[in-house]
Amino acid sequence: MTSYYYNRPTSFGSIKHKKHDCDFDKHDCDCHKHDCDCKKHDCDCKKHDCKCFREPDCKPEKIKFRCSTLTGATGIGVIAIGGLITPTTIGTISVSDLCCFKKPCVQLEISAIITIGVAIAVGTTITFRVFRRCDNQDEVEIQSFNLPQGVVLAVGSSIPVAFVVCDCNACPANCCTYRVTVEATAAVAVASAINVGQGGISLIAGNGC
Description:
The chain has helices spanning 33-36, 47-50, and strands at 64-69, 73-80, 88-96, 104-116, 125-134, 140-148, 158-167, 175-186, 190-207.
């Protein structure tokens, strides 16, 4: 009878299973915890998934998210057309570290409910404005929305409002603050006519290129 002997190899040659051999460090999927607050399992690149033969195919984009409740305002008067208008601030929101983006692009979502405290006439226009100030730069208006009223609004009436602003014109900065204001104009001035509240501001920032 012929005997066969099997010698178990003492080394595995080119077969390696060290962590670095499958290029599986956190930086391979750009998900450093302190950079984008995402752990390895957030991008589905656990060690057993890549089987030490392929690189993870996940590369999440860095984004920033903020949200804030509107401070709102009550007793906002309707200003006669041609009169001096002082917009009333109803909310602000800030985002930092925009300098980390090559070309920062910010999307704002704003919602509110307008309630009527005094009946207002046809032709009254309610205007929302959004301003931006970055670092020590001057504040600039980036968008406005007009809500012309085609009917008489009785006391107690309410108007839901929601709009989106996309701001891709800001230069990279350490911090930018967005401010939302409201004003109302008509042929005849009316004191303490509207209230604005029950809303919020949310912000998403990312690379625009």
